[in-house]
Amino acid sequence: MDIIIRENYEQMSKYAAQIIANVVRTKPNCVLGLATGSTPIGTYRELVRMHREEGLDFSEVTTFNLDEYLGVGIDLDKPYHLDQSYARFMYEELFKHINIKKENIHIPDGLTTNPNEHCKWYEEQIKKAGGIDLQLLGIGRDGHWGFNEPGSSLGSRTRVVALTEQTLNDNYEAFYKKANISRSEMPHFAITMGIGTILEARNILMIANGAGKADVVAKCLEGPVTSQITSSAIQLHSGGITVVLDKEAASKLKNIDYYRHVETLKHQYGL
Ligand code: GLP
C-alpha cells in the first residue's frame, strides 16, 4: 500500500488526477470506478484541465460510479432540474466537460422501480466490462466507502442500504443545504456497490483531506479490519493500492514518518 502525503487539497487532487490520467493514457479503453462527495471535486477539475490542455482522451473510457441516492436521478437526454443526485453531480463536475461517451457512463439508477434487480444488473455490467481497472474512493466520516455504512459485510455486493444519521447530516451540510432542500426531504436510502464489489477492482485509489477525516483515516489504515469501519477492508485488497492524503487527514497516522520515508526512497530509486 502506497500512502502519499501532500501539503494541501490542491496537491492531493493533482496527485490523484495524475494516477487516473496515467491509467487512461496506458489503457485508453480502461474501466474507471468513480466516487462522489466534496473530496474528489479537485481531482475531477484537474482531469478536466488535462483533457482541455493536454488532450487527455476519455473517448474509449468506461465508468462505473459507486453509488446513488434512491429516489433521485436525471435523464441525461433531457434538460434536468436541479436535483441532488450523484448523476447530476458527476455530470456537472466531470462528464459534461470531457469527451466520454454517454453510453459508457454507468451510475446506479436512483429512479429504478426495481432496485434489487437493478443492483444485480449493475454487477453484471461491471463484469461484462471486464472489471474495474482503477477505483477512486473517498471516505465517509464513519469510515464508509460508497454508502457501505458500519455493519456492512466486507463481502457485500451492490445493494440497497439505509443511511446513518451521521451520513445524512454530513451530506446535508455539504450539498442539500446549499440547494435549499430540507433535511427531512433527503433520501434516506441509497444503492451502493458493496465492499466485496469494490475489492474486486484491480487497483484502488483512496483520497482524503482535512482534519475532520484524520481519526477515521487512521482507523481505516492502521486499525483492525472491521465491518464497523468498512473502508478498513482496504487492508485486504490484493491489487495496487494508493492512498493520497493531505497533511491534515494524515495527521493521526502513527506510522506517518515511515510512509514519508518509503515515498522518498521510492522516488530516489525510481520505483
Ligand atoms: C458520501 C459518498 C461517499 C463519500 C463520502 C465522503 O457518503 N457516498 O462515496 O466518500 O460521502 O464525502 P466527502 O468527500 O464530501 O467528505
Model description:
The protein has helices spanning 9-26, 41-54, 86-93, 115-128, 165-176, 195-199, 214-222, 256-268; strands spanning 2-6, 31-34, 62-65, 67-69, 105-106, 134-137, 159-162, 189-192, 203-208, 240-246. It is of the alpha/beta class and 271 residues long. The protein has one domain: Rossmann fold, CATH 3.40.50.1360. The strands form two sheets. It has a seven-stranded parallel beta sheet with strand order 1-10-9-6-2-3-5. Helix 1 packs across helix 2 (41-54). The chain is globular, with a radius of gyration of 18 Å. The model has no long low-confidence stretch (mean pLDDT 94). It binds 2-amino-2-deoxy-6-O-phosphono-alpha-D-glucopyranose. 2-amino-2-deoxy-6-O-phosphono-alpha-D-glucopyranose binds next to helix 5.
Report a brief summary of the structure.
With 271 residues, this protein is α/β, with parallel strands linked by helices. Helix content is 34%, strand content 16%. It is built from 8 helices and 10 strands.
